[in-house]
Amino acid sequence: MKRTGYLSWDEYFMGIAMLSAQRSKDAESQVGACVVNSHHKILSVGYNGMPTGCPDDNMPWEKEGAPLETKHLYLCHACLNAILNSAAGLFGCTIYTTLFPCNECAKAIIQSGIHTVIYRDENPDADAVAAARRMFDMAGVKYRAYHRAGETVALEL
Known about the structure:
Blueprint: H1 9-21, E1 32-36, E2 42-47, H2 78-85, E3 94-99, H3 103-112, E4 116-121, H4 126-139, E5 142-145
Parallel strand pairs: 3-4, 4-5
Antiparallel strand pairs: 1-2, 1-3
Helix pairs in contact: 3-4
């Protein structure tokens, strides 16, 4: 007999994105992403963090202040990290992300050939989201909100 109550593909891949977000050292926001192909194979994951080779302890993590003393000019977003971490071509893939992509990540998503974005939470940066949606619409990238099933999955690590 086939088991019931198992995770859907959306639940599974969003769960991977949410778990990846837990690697972020950003005290304000933890964002994760997971890229999958049409055969439901994970090609890459990413989370928001500092670039490789830039020690976290030497980088600014503040949200407010002089631009060079805040995280904004340095931090790699989760979607960008997932794209850069992939060793495979991403044309036709889907990206699951815990936060709707900003305009910068939207450019990378479009350029990589990803055709679908599934996001969990709305991004609070209205201008970045408006620009991202405009570019996605022009480029034919589909996007939709993830619909939570209300399930809770606990991992004991």
